[in-house]
Write a sequence for this structure.
C-alpha cells in the first residue's frame, strides 16, 4: 500500500508555523505533503510568484513516524475560479491541463454535478479534492461539506477522490485513519476512503510528473508464433526459433 499523503497544506509567510505543520504531519504518519500556493485572479495582470523551494524553508525535514525516512515535501499551485458555475467546472474537467479539481465545501454549490464531464475527468486521470478542515471548524460548513461530497459521490461512484486537510494549524490536522473514517461520512466505501489518502494521492503526484516529462510509456512484447507459421519457416530459421 502506498504511503499516506496530504496534498493541501497552505503555504504561509511564517516559517515556524510551517515547520510545526510539517512536524505534526510526520508525527501522524504522513509520508508526503504538498505546500499549496493559492492564486486568485481578482486583479488584472496579476503575476504568479514562483513558490519558495522546500529546501530553503526546511533545511532539515522531520522523520515520518514508524519509518526511517524523512517526509517528502512538494509544491502545488491552485488557481481560484471567481465564478463557480457549471461551465467553469466543465472546462476544468474536459479541457484544462490540471491534476486536481478542488470542490468548494464551505457553501452550497450553485450547480449540480453532471455525469459526462465528471467521467471525462476520470478518464483523463484528473482527481477531485475534498477538504475536511472546514467540517471540523463549523457546524454549517460541516453540513455543506457532507452534502457537496455526497452529491459528487453519486456521480463519480467514489472514483478518483482525494481528501486533504487545508490545515493552517497543527491542531487542525487529523491522522490518515481518522480522515479515512471521515470519508465514510462523505459516501465512500472503506477501501475508497483509504485510497483517498494514499493510492489516489500517489496517482495524482504521478499524473503531475508524467504531464511534465512524458505522455506515456511504450513497450514491446514478443508475439509467439502460430503452428501454421512454424511449418512455413525454413529449417535454419526453425532451428534458431527453437533454440
Amino acid at each position: 500500500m502506498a504511503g499516506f499523503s496530504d496534498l493541501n497544506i497552505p503555504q504561509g509567510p511564517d516559517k515556524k508555523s510551517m515547520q510545526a505543520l510539517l512536524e505534526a504531519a510526520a508525527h501522524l504518519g504522513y509520508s508526503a505533503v504538498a505546500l499549496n500556493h493559492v492564486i486568485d485572479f481578482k486583479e488584472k495582470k496579476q503575476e504568479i510568484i514562483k513558490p519558495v523551494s522546500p529546501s530553503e524553508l526546511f533545511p532539515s525535514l522531520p522523520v515520518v513516524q514508524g519509518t526511517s525516512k524523512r517526509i517528502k515535501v512538494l509544491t502545488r499551485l491552485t488557481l481560484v475560479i471567481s465564478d463557480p458555475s457549471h461551465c467553469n467546472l466543465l472546462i476544468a474537467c474536459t479541457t484544462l491541463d490540471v491534476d486536481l479539481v478542488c470542490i468548494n465545501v464551505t457553501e452550497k454549490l450553485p450547480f449540480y454535478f453532471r455525469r459526462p464531464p465528471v467521467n471525462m475527468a476520470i478518464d483523463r486521470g484528473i482527481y477531485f479534492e475534498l477538504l475536511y478542515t472546514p467540517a471540523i471548524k463549523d457546524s454549517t460548513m460541516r453540513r455543506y461539506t457532507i452534502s457537496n461530497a455526497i452529491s459528487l459521490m453519486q456521480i463519480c461512484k467514489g472514483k478518483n477522490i482525494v481528501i486533504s486537510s487545508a490545515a493552517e494549524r497543527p491542531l487542525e490536522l487529523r491522522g490518515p485513519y481518522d480522515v479515512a473514517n471521515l470519508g465514510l461520512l462523505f459516501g465512500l466505501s472503506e477501501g475508497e476512503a483509504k485510497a483517498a489518502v494514499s493510492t489516489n494521492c500517489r496517482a495524482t503526484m504521478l499524473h503531475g510528473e508524467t504531464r511534465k516529462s512524458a505522455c506515456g510509456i511504450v513497450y514491446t512484447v514478443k508475439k509467439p508464433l502460430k503452428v501454421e507459421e512454424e511449418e512455413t519457416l525454413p529449417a535454419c530459421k526453425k532451428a534458431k526459433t527453437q533454440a
